[in-house]
Every structure is written in C-alpha cells, then in structure tokens.
Amino acid sequence: MADSFLNIRELKALGLKSFGKNVRISRKASLYAAEAISIGDHVRIDDFCILSGNITIGSYVHISAYTALYGKGGIEIADYVTISGRVLVYSENDDYSGEFMTNPMLPDEYTNVQSEKVCFEKHAIVASGSIILPGVKMREGSCVGAMSLLKSSTESWMIYAGVPASIIKKRKKNILVLEKKLRNQL
Fold first, then answer.
1. Residues 136, 114, 116, 42: is their CA dihedral positive or negative?
2. Distance between CA atoms of 186 and 184, rounded to whole angstroms?
3. Contact predicate 120/76, CB 8 Å
4. CB–CB of 29/49 below 8 Å?
5. Model's pTM, two decimal places?
6. How do residues 116-175 score in pLDDT, each as one tens digit?
7. Contact of 102 with 145, CB cutoff 8 Å
8. H/E stretch holding 185
C-alpha cells in the first residue's frame, strides 16, 4: 500500500521553488504554479488542500484538510503557524461594486481585482472554517477562532473571533518558552 503523502522523488517532480526536509504533502492536495511555492522544514499539508500562487511557508507548519491558499498576491507563512481545516486565505479580491465584472475568465480591462499580500507571523493560528482577506497580517502569536472573518490585521498575542473578527482576550506566551526548548533540543 502506498503512503498517502508524496515521497521525495514525487516532491521533486512537483517543481516547487524550494522545499526542506520532512515535508509531507498529501497525494490528494492540489498545487498550482508550484514553481512559485517555497516550503521550509517539517511541514505537513493535508488532503484536499489547494495552494495556488506566490506562497512561502516556513518551518513547523501544518495546513489542515480542505484549506485553500489563493496566493497570486502573495502569502507568507512564518514558522510554527497552524492553519486548521476548511480555512480560506485570499490575497486577491474582486470589486463587487457593480462597476466591474467579476470572473477570472474575463479580460483584465473588465475587472478590478485588488491584490495584497497576506502574512502569518510566528505562532499564528487560524481555526476551522475561517476566512482571511487580502492585506491581513496576523501578528506573532495571534489567533482567530472558528468560523471567523478576518478582514484587518491583528495585534500580537491576541485571540480574535466573530464576523468580522474582533479581540476577545489576550493569549498566553508560554509558547515562546516551548519554542526555545525545542530549538535547544535540535
């Protein structure tokens, strides 16, 4: 029985910009424009994920099943980030004002697509079913609760939830102690 993750030969065949050691990508994941995707060490990308566009993933990152990263405008994911299942991250957005058409099959002159990089700093967490819009920066240690809509950048070490997401409380920083312990063991 074959492993459910790509082997090293299959990872090389994807044509990724770069990838590190212990990278686990599900055979059921879809990567588009793989030549624009960089992946660090100790990264797992689960079943039915879609990665498309300019995406940089750090080390010790997990991207859960059914998550989609649309990175034409750029997505940067730092070390120790967790993105739970069914999360949608958009680095581009159509203009819904009615002044322009909205459809990737139309010539650019008929649309008004806005692109802005999305960034996830160290230890950011995105819970299941959340949506992250273009230009959002999830600062270090911030997290967003399940089924939330994050349309503006977060503050470090705060927990957000809701539609649109807002601060609900501070997050503990014990993670930094654990990170230091991990680094010392390596």
1. positive
2. 5
3. yes
4. yes
5. 0.95
6. 999 999 999 999 999 999 999 999 999 999 999 999 999 999 999 999 999 999 999 999
7. no
8. helix 174-185
Domains of the chain: 8-185 (2.160.10.10)
Q: Which two tokens stand for residue 36?
A: 């624009």
Q: Count the residues in the chain.
A: 186
Q: Indicate if the alpha-carbon torsion angle 122, 125, 182, 177 is positive or negative.
A: positive
- Closest listed residue to residue 115, CA positions, set 72, 150, 77, 52: 72
Cα separation, 92 vs 134, in Å, equals: 6
CA–CA separation, 26 and 65 (whole Å)? 9
pLDDT tens string 20-34 = 999 999 999 999 999
Quote the CA–CA distance of 11 and 20 in Å, as a whole number.
10
- DSSP structure string for 6-20: --HHHHHHHT-SEE-
